[in-house]
Amino acid sequence: MRYLEKIVSRPEIVAIGAQARGDGRRIAFTNGCFDLLHVGHIRYLAAARDAADLLIVGVNDDASVRRLKGPARPLVPDAARAEVVAALAAVDYVTLFSAETPYELIRAIEPDVLVKGSDWAPDQVVGRDVVEARGGRVLLVPVVAGFSTTALVERLRNG
User: Domain span at residue 29?
Assistant: First the structure.
């Protein structure tokens, strides 16, 4: 299972990012819970990958998902969520993070492109200041209507 090699620690991803930058490669970064993967996630990650030479995905660990989504989430443990994301062809590397936001991870990786869904206002994108200060940009990818993990969870609970 070669895709498991894509799941790396924070020190490893920082070193990988530095090497990629040294090689002149552009790095895109995005993050999320990715609790139940759906077509919206797939299109989002494909667009993120198209924006650079290397896509790094930060996946919220279980504790941070509970803080963000409530005590009933995540539905899928962090190691399994990271593995599912890593198995996608569009994704080059995955790293778990536990903070409330990926701000410190973004500072450590120093991506050229910071990718979020279009449901975020540009001035609300965490890490925008870090990326733009280095000459990078924020890319807002259109959200696919009708696909939301929260909505899927509600439909499953309510039958």
Answer: 2-158
